[in-house]
Amino acid sequence: MTKPAMWALGGLLVAIPLGIALWVLWPEGDLEPGCTLSPHSHWRNGQVKLDACNWRDGGVRHSHYCAYTPDGSFVGCWIEKDGRPWSGTMVQWYPAGEEENPKEAYGQPKLIKHFQEGRPAGVWRAYYPTGTVMSEVEFEDNLQVEIRTYSPGGDLIRRNRMD
User: Fold this and answer.
1) Cβ pair 64, 31 in contact under 8 A
2) Model pTM?
3) Of 87, 50, 55, residue with least CA distance to 65
């Protein structure tokens, strides 16, 4: 199998379950009626990088954000109340030009974190600039229960369980 085909297959194996999980956890019910997501920032190719919607409720500022890759694929959404993460998925991107090969890292998530009511939840994933998973931290009841570290090739290097 060629290297591009392996990358595509690996991307699908991560993207499909992640997409399903994000769709199930989509926090659209937290949007204020009449609040419409609109482009907040764009990738260099013009695709939307971040959609946002802001509103106030009882003096508290609420923000709803959704992130996308340069090809327009949905990554996840999150909500902030008074600037603090509340529920959803937060995405940290690799900054353009700061990696050894900036074209390789362009549009790749660096870290994807999930929150439930302001607390860490589910599996947080850190990625190499190539898009391969670097590490996973699993949370249960707001506590880390397992950490897995992977090689740049995707092989499991170490697994620590906190029992």
Assistant:
1) yes
2) 0.56
3) 50
